[in-house]
Amino acid sequence: MKSLLIRGGHIIDPSQGIDEIGSLLITEGEISWLETGEVTPPQPDYDVLPARGLIVCPGFIDLHCHLRQPGFEEKETIATGTRAAARGGFTTICCMPNTNPPLDNQATIEYVKLKATTEGVVRVLPIGCISKGRKGEELAEIGELASAGVIAFSDDGEPAVDSRLMRQALDYSRAFGLPIIDHCEDTVLTEGGQMNEGIIATRLGLRGIPAAAEEIMVARDLALAQLTGARLHIAHTTTEGSVDLIRRAKEKGIQVTAEVTPHHLTLTEERVIGYDTNAKVNPPLRTREDIQALIQGLRENVIDVIATDHAPHTEADKLCEFALAPFGISGFETALGSLMSLVHDGQLTLATLVAKLTYEPSRIIGDKYGKLGTLAIGAPADVTIFDPNLEWAVDTKAFASKGKNTPLAGSILKGKIMATIVQGKLVYKDESLRLKEG
Ligand SMILES: [Zn+2]
Ligand SMILES: [Zn+2]
After folding, report:
1. pLDDT, tens digit, 9 for 90 and up, residues 371-397
2. What number of other Cβ atoms are within 10 A of residue 226's Cβ?
3. Per the confidence metrics, is the pTM higher than 0.85?
4. Is 309 among the catalytic positions?
5. N or C: which end of the chain has fewer CB within 10 A?
6. C-alpha distances in angstroms, 65 versus 115, 194, 328?
């Protein structure tokens, strides 16, 4: 394969503290050269991708998505999901095990890995179940899953309700150095809940999901992480109270990391007015105050990463009465565009945003799968290129994802992915970007 020079872009690589104009060269799937300033690379034989005016950064890593295969191929497949990820700038995605059958043994993990290599276009790292069959009763074969290569354990979609099981899971996973990712929800409190509890839910006549339902589980999990000394990762944090709990736990030295989704950072519960089932998500969209606390949490590294919780559904699934619709938003293809609003508003710096999508998630995964989240020489050439200022309209018909379920359909977003490169291979390119043959 011919080398590729990405020339004259604004390189942001938080792993190396780079935030300036420069060029980089990709040779045989690896980053072979990187220089800031106006310089010519050593070797003359390469194609050129002109990146003036564009941001060039390590490929985005998504710690939390749902690819729906095996079992729910009408909603998404590994082929369509990884193409949607590529269009969103993601080069590595970690998929949740709530498939059918669930990813609770080596055979299902091998199936996902094989599908990903034969039909996928980005790197897929599976997450294994905490409990057998995701039933919350008996611990899954943690050791078997660890040797099959899972990056974490989770029963996402459901919380680990049984505290003793959660304690066991933390104890076992510690031996393998892998985190337990919990979907924090007190399901007794949330039963029948449709949206955030509050005045809007009352007005709409929908049963509410209180912030306390999340915070109770976050508090319990933090106590168990302290007890076991194991690694805990909090999925989709949404409330000010959760951010406070995580902050205090980190101050105490508890091994906890946390994520937040683009939709919980940018959309409020008001989106549900009009009963838009595409705004129905679990945990629910919260308030302006919660969003401010989440952004503050990102700035202070209380919240480590941004993860999409991409949850595709069919049109038929969502075309129903609000109370009957499934929870979830199709998130890959709008993630950057919606997150860039926080940069344009001056709430997050571009470097912080890129760190939350690259370097920080790579630290949680570790380097068992190669050096991810960096443009360091010798690392796999996973590169994302985006235009921070390009405005575009969200057209779900153009989505690669089978899931068109987004409350952002028709919205104008400012910030667009222009190219996504996985191990040196261009897996997505915007039509307007021209490659020059060397
Ligand atoms: Zn969840
Ligand atoms: Zn999820």
Report:
1. 999 999 999 999 999 999 999 999 999
2. 16
3. yes
4. yes
5. N
6. 16, 21, 11
In the chain the domains, ranked by start, together with CATH numbers, are 3-56+379-393+410-429 (2.30.40.10), 59-365 (3.20.20.140)
Residue 115's H or E segment, with its range, is: helix 106-119
Spacing, Cα 47 to ligand 1 middle (Å)? 43
What amino acid occupies position 221?
Answer: D
For residues 69 and 95, what is the distance between their CA atoms, to the nearest angstrom? 10
CA–CA separation, 92 and 305 (whole Å): 14
What mean pLDDT do residues 329-336 have? 98
pLDDT in tens, 267-299: 999 999 999 999 999 999 999 999 999 999 999
Q: How many whole angstroms separate alpha carbon 437 and alpha carbon 20?
A: 25
Ligand 1 centre and the CA of 355: distance in Å? 23
- Residue 314 CA, chain-centre distance (Å), reads 21
DSSP H helical ranges for 192-326: 199-204, 211-228, 240-251, 262-266, 288-299, 315-318
Among residues 98, 259, 228, the alpha carbon closest in space to that of 165 is found at 228
- Dihedral (Cα; 153, 155, 156, 158), 10-degree rounding: -160
Cα–ligand 2 centroid distance for 117 (angstroms)? 23
CA 65 to chain centre: 6
Q: Cβ–Cβ contacts within 10 Å for residue 57, how many? A: 31
